[in-house]
């Protein structure tokens, strides 16, 4: 199956006909728990010696189909579905970090990830340095003996920034540290970070993978390549675990130690499991991922080109434009495409931004991306309104900035709506 092309994998990978009922579509296994054959079977399951189902906080066949599909698309060894994208990030870091440890992260990240890593992780005594990852030397300079992971977004939300994944992977590996890539905005249809050296990929499947804005979800994908035992820096993986009678995950599970620890320790004990209904909705959405991404990218390029020539628009930041500073990296990592999300600046500043989002009719004014519908937000009056203007500007969300997630409607209707709204601004 993994030999197939991405368009085929998006439909077929992970989802064979149901073995019991022969249902062609993966059923929603809406059950909390699973019956044991006998006491020995139960013991084998709990000892992680036999594969099988125990309880839906740990595993569920509908979620398992989604995990198989995304692992195949990303070229990973295995995957784990979680309740949300943030839950995926939390479980991935929880598996790698001890109190006092440190993350080097790109400073151009989804705002929620800046909060999670910069503020909430501090309560666990996990620390972070945010660097301008456009120059991989900045990543290298920020790595300390306590650093346990480097974290970037392949295509950063919201600004149309593309990161040099291979160069950053080299820097991380030279320091004995894995590279984690959030591939939410690019999706495996544009970029497969594992092919460029990433060790772990995370997603908010809430966005383009699901694609229809109807449920939350996340996933962790393990490349299955990193040597967790070599440095002794990952004791959760390479030291005896007291909650499994002293089992050492790297010895028991080899190259799957990380992803199995995310499930059997992290998900078991912290609990952010995906609802099977949400896995089903995401499986359904993913069947059209290839078609949707093609249309999303074509529409975004057309809208960005049109906006760039509009007299009320100051600038457009979209890596799909041939003259964009990030276009060479988009050619290397994203097949020359720029995804569906980008920002632009209005000459009229804050007031014009507020008027624009009030005047759109086809675009929905809301805080999400990756829907079939075109979405728009003015960060300075919404997601970033708590920040001082200087900090808004630092985050690429100054008073004149508007972010769009371009949908898959007809491009003429998208442009017509933007034209009438700009008229009103
Ligand atoms: C939305 C998003 C997240 C968080 O995902 P949730 O599913 O909302 O928890 C993380 N990273 C990126 C790039 C996102 O766009």
UniProtKB/TrEMBL annotation:
Keywords, sorted A to Z: Lyase, Pyridoxal phosphate, Transferase
GO biological process assignments: cysteine biosynthetic process from serine; L-homocysteine biosynthetic process; transsulfuration
Keyword Transferase: yes
EC number: 4.4.1.11
Membrane-traversing stretches: none
Pfam family, one: Cys_Met_Meta_PP
GO cellular component, one term: cytoplasm
N6-(pyridoxal phosphate)lysine PTM positions: 207
InterPro entries cross-referenced by the UniProt entry: Cys/Met-Metab_PyrdxlP-dep_enz, OAc-hSer/O-AcSer_sulfhydrylase, PyrdxlP-dep_Trfase, PyrdxlP-dep_Trfase_major, PyrdxlP-dep_Trfase_small
Top-level taxon of origin: Bacteria
UniProt cross-references to CDD domains, sorted A to Z: CGS_like
Cofactor(s) this protein cannot do without: pyridoxal 5'-phosphate
GO molecular function, one term: cysteine synthase activity
UniProt keyword Signal present: no
Leading EC class: lyase
Protein family according to the UniProt entry: Belongs to the trans-sulfuration enzymes family.
Protein's recorded name: Methionine gamma-lyase
Native source species: Edaphosphingomonas haloaromaticamans
Organism lineage string: Bacteria, Pseudomonadati, Pseudomonadota, Alphaproteobacteria, Sphingomonadales
